[in-house]
Amino acid sequence: MSNSGIGQFIPLILIFVIFYFFLIRPQQKKAKEHKIMVENLKKGDKVITSGGIVGKVDRIIDNEKVEIEIADNVTVEVIRATGIQALVTAQEVKK
């Protein structure tokens, strides 16, 4: 009887292991990379905000906020950890 009891939990354990390697672990890795990217921001970096606005980092206010210039004489204050989605890398266009 005890063998059948343990045997019933093996599929659940396998499902958890699969979820860990295909969902949880990659998400943690991506969050860690994003945190490092946000911590390494400096003046002049081009970024994309969570709302999809592209701008250039004008100044770093403190550890929580960044001021982004989105147009001439137009700056927006954005929360560092949640407001910045990605860095824009300049790529050359081949003709």
Briefly, what is this?
This protein has 95 residues and is an alpha+beta fold.
How would you explain this protein's 3D organization?
- This protein is of the alpha+beta class and 95 residues long.
- It is built from two helices and five strands.
- The chain has helices at 2-39, 80-83; strands at residues 46-49, 54-60, 65-71, 74-79, 84-87.
- It has a five-stranded antiparallel sheet with strand order 4-3-2-1-5.
| Secondary-structure class | alpha+beta
* Cα gyration radius (Å): 22 Å
The average pLDDT value, as a whole number, equals 86
Biggest β-sheet description: 5 strands, antiparallel
Ends: how far apart? 72 Å
Number of helices: 2
E-strand count: 5
Which spans have pLDDT < 50 for at least 5 consecutive residues? none
What characteristics describe this protein?
alpha+beta, 5-stranded antiparallel beta sheet, 95 residues, rod-shaped, 5 strands
Fold topology:
Blueprint: H1 2-39, E1 46-49, E2 54-60, E3 65-71, E4 74-79, H2 80-83, E5 84-87
Antiparallel strand pairs: 1-2, 1-5, 2-3, 3-4
